[in-house]
Specification:
This protein is an alpha/beta fold. The protein has two domains: 168 residues, 3-Layer(aba) Sandwich (Rossmann fold); 152 residues, Dihydrodipicolinate Reductase, domain 2 (2-Layer Sandwich), CATH 3.30.360. It has 15 helices and 13 strands. The strands form two sheets. The chain has a seven-stranded mixed β-sheet, with helices on both faces. A six-stranded mixed β-sheet has the order 9-11-10-8-12-13, with helices on one face.
Length: 337
């Protein structure tokens, strides 16, 4: 089967995805009987469009000079062309706008309205309009997958299918690697918050404007998606009690140590309430992970706690999650074994 794909967003995640699609094309053919054709790649100022299929190796080889290719069309928008292209799956990897979810939200809605399945790494649309997107997908008999929105390659959403005979009661997690890295450095080295933040920025773990990370909003959005998907809730990011880590001092961290505690940036969903805030946890807790890792602890009815841990960010990490979603859709549609 030939699956035709539209990619919206050629940033770090989008480019990593193109590399994986190129590297794995023989695997897709041999193991899944799939030929995956990317016929359009959209950026904010135009698009690469070739209905016969874009040569991914050529795109990767030219790097940032892709706009010089003959099939680059300047000033065209994905929102205007989604309905006109012959596409089976639309992959949305544009940056998140935390207040509006745009332009990703409109891209997702447009694709679903045209009976096109959607895969997204853009979390904004899902913590702002989760119910609307899910209802629209159901009405149009489409799949919408978004594993990469929460913990990247850590299978925190798809685990629901593997626990169908169980019941997830609550969630405790560390969902922001930047905040976790900063508190880990403060705990291990006794450094103050500003120095730990500067180190995180120098290593590329924190943005030049780290507000969304250190003030808890990134984790809050991910928690909303987790709770809605795994617990069956219908929450919005406004429902989350949010407190960041910027007020945590090295003195507070040192005070916790003699009693066997550490301070971690926890995201919690339990008793129909959502919160993101620094909390004291036992130093032997499975949630006490260091560095920029993510961890999700699911409390289940019949099996107790189940722990998922791994790198929750990165281009190839997110791209691998998108590949998983892609194969999952093709299987559910009957395209592949």
């Amino acid at each position: 089967m030939n699956i035709k794909i539209c990619l919206i967003g050629k940033g770090i995640v989008g480019t990593s995805l193109l590399q994986l699609l190129n590297e794995k094309k023989q695997l897709f053919k041999q193991k899944f009987n799939l030929k995956i054709t990317v016929n359009s790649i959209f950026e904010s100022d135009g698009a690469l469009i070739n209905e016969k299929g874009i040569d991914l190796k050529e795109i990767l080889d030219v790097g940032d000079d892709f706009r010089n290719l003959p099939y680059w069309r300047r000033d065209v928008k994905a929102i205007d062309l989604i309905s006109k292209l012959d596409v089976d799956i639309c992959i949305e990897t544009t940056p998140t706008n935390p207040k509006t979810g745009e332009p990703g939200l409109s891209h997702i809605i447009e694709a679903l309205n045209n009976h096109i399945d959607v895969i997204s790494s853009n979390k904004g649309p899902f913590y702002l309009e989760y119910k609307k997107i899910k209802n629209l997908a159901e009405q149009n008999n489409c799949y919408v997958k978004y594993e990469a929105t929460v913990a990247s390659c850590v299978p925190s959403l798809r685990i629901k299918e593997d626990l169908i005979g169980n019941e997830i009661l609550s969630i405790k997690a560390i969902l922001n690697g930047t905040s976790n890295f900063i508190l880990s450095r403060m705990t291990a080295e006794g450094v103050d918050f500003p120095l730990a933040l500067k180190e995180a920025q120098e290593l590329g773990y924190a943005e030049s404007d780290p507000t969304l990370d250190i003030e808890g909003y990134d984790a809050a959005g991910k928690l909303v998606i987790l709770a809605n998907e795994l617990l069956g809730w219908s929450k919005h990011i406004k429902d989350v009690k949010v407190e960041g880590i910027s007020k945590i001092t090295s003195h507070a961290i040192e005070l916790a140590k003699p009693d066997g505690f550490v301070i971690k940036p926890l995201a919690i969903a339990e008793n129909n309430e959502l919160s993101v805030e620094p909390r004291l946890i036992d130093k032997y807790s499975p949630l006490n992970i260091s560095g920029n890792l993510n961890v999700v602890e699911l409390e289940t009815k019949y099996a107790g706690p189940i722990i998922l841990m791994g790198r929750g960010a990165g281009g190839f990490e997110a791209a691998s999650a998108i590949i998983n979603d892609l194969i999952d859709i093709t299987r559910k549609k009957g395209y592949s074994p």
